[in-house]
Amino acid sequence: MAISKKSDEVLATGRRKCAVARIRLTSGTGKIVLNGRDMAEYFSSEALCGFVNQVFKVTETAGKFDVAANLDGGGIAGQAGALRHGLARALVKLDESYRAILKANGMMTRDARVKERKKSGQPGARRRFQFSKR
Questions:
Q1: Closest alpha carbon to 52 in 38, 96, 8
Q2: For 73-129, what is each residue's pLDDT tens digit?
Q3: Which CATH topology does 9-104 take?
Q4: pTM for the model
Q5: Which of 51, 55, 58, 75 is the most exposed place for a label (fewest CB within 10 A)?
């Protein structure tokens, strides 16, 4: 985990499923850029944008920070979860008083649920082929 405080800049990493979000948080006007694109353009669903912005709403820091993030791996929902986790970690690095609020809202915990692998001789992870007695 890299910590950089040059010119009021914080680096953090968030993870969810197979997605990884590398975040650079700086003081600013609330602009969020993901992989060189605006957040509304990157996440077409308003629900995912709201999910990410929960971090700022809970800590009452909406519009105070600019976010530049590189998202890699996984799908769109996993990347949104990774971004939210990384933002929470970045805010705590910036100000330790946010930890209690974010932890109470479940944003500091890495959601470790990942898809279970398919087993050989079966059509899925748990599903079995239909049993035939005759």
A1: 38
A2: 999 999 999 999 999 999 999 999 999 999 999 999 999 999 999 999 999 999 999
A3: Ribosomal Protein S5; domain 2 (3.30.230)
A4: 0.87
A5: 75
